[in-house]
Request: fold
Amino acid sequence: MSPPTFFMDRSADALRAGLAAFAKVVHGDRSSRCTLTNAVESNRVAKAATTSLRDHHPVHIEEVRR
Reply:
């Protein structure tokens, strides 16, 4: 059997674990290890990736910190 090539298939176990951990945080069974800084930085990464896709060139994180 060949290894999975689709991202969701390759990452299924990690995605399930992440979703289970998120559900525990939402339910109040555990606290989140993510900080506000983590959230802001991940948003910047997403903005840089979206801009890169739209404009067809690499975008550095520093460009979206403004």
The longest helix spans residues 36-55. The mean pLDDT is 90. The chain is about 60% helix and 0% strand. The chain has two domains: 1-30, 34-66.
